[in-house]
Amino acid sequence: MPAPATPPLFKFANVSVIRGDKRVLDGVTLSIGEGENVVILGPNGAGKSSLIKTITREYYPVLSEGPVTFQVRGKEVWDVFDLRSFVGIVSNDLQYTFTRTITGREVILSGFFSSIGLFNRVVTPEMEEKTGEILRFLHIDRLSDRPMNEMSSGEARRFLIGRALVFDPATLILDEPTNSLDLSALHTFRQTLRMIAQSGTSIILVTHHLHDIIPEITRVVMINGGRVCGDGEKPVMLTDEMISRLFSVPVHVREEKGWYYAIGY
Q1: Contact yes or no for 239/230 (Cβ under 8 A)
Q2: Is 80 exposed, middle or buried (0-12, 13-18, 19+ CB in 10 A)?
Q3: DSSP for 11-45?
Q4: Whether the Cβ atoms of residue 200 and residue 117 lie closer than 8 Å to each other
């Protein structure tokens, strides 16, 4: 007998979300499988971050025409704390929360408790050991005792990645991860992301920058106006015509050793 099919990691059908008087997601239909390296690409305000907040239960779908499917690993109902055991999430909102005197090591340890800091938390030797492994893996152990408010944006972002890795998630979601990074920090961050992908953790990258798309990503999902407007393999999607249409500006897309860049705008 053939083995039963594994349900996708995320499956959406006809999912809409309204915030205030704006429909931020409009009938989104999308399926992402376990182990896929995917970029969700679109301009600012396209609905990319709203999609991630819907996954994490910060936003809830509204009733709309037609049947609505919203599943995680085949389940219609899930606990966000269970989600964190197999999906790590790094967002700009999270980084703003950690702009205080918490040390880098404490930031990573807080991932075990889904907390901000370690107030009234009991840290076990196993947690300390895992934190040490993550610090060494991300090459940030020398910064572990530095407060977050004394780090650069790039340094702080790597500690938030470390926080997301404490449960060895199969998938890491990064929402606009390179905002405010200079060229040096961007280079370090992209190398870190490649290292994570090559270690076996799948990546879902949310961005409006082509240069964020590491070579290990193979699928591009385009979002605009709260809708999925394109979905396919990277060479098919990252073309002059497709990117010009997505961002409403004429561009030329250049590929160089697996990296893509938009020029001429």
Answers
A1: no
A2: middle
A3: EEEEEEEEETTEEEEEEEEEEE-TT--EEEE--TT
A4: no
Half-sphere exposure for 217 (CA within 13 Å, toward CB):
31
Long-range contacts of 237-243 (CB under 8 A, 24+ apart): 237/41, 238/210, 238/213, 243/210
Cα 7–Cα 30–Cα 65 angle in degrees, nearest 5: 110
State pLDDT tens for residues 110-147: 999 888 878 788 999 999 999 999 999 999 999 999 99
| φ and ψ of 38, to 5 deg | -130, 145
| Alpha-helical segments (H) within 19-145 | 48-55, 80-83, 92-97, 104-110, 125-137
pTM score over 0.85? yes
Residue type, 143: L
Beta carbons within 8 Å of 173's beta carbon, 6+ residues apart: 52, 55, 87, 88, 89, 90, 204, 206
| CA-based radius of gyration for the chain | 19
Domains of the chain: 36-46+80-263 (3.40.50.300)
Q: Residues 226, 23: contact at Cβ < 8 Å?
A: yes
Provide the token pair at 14. Answer: 């006809």
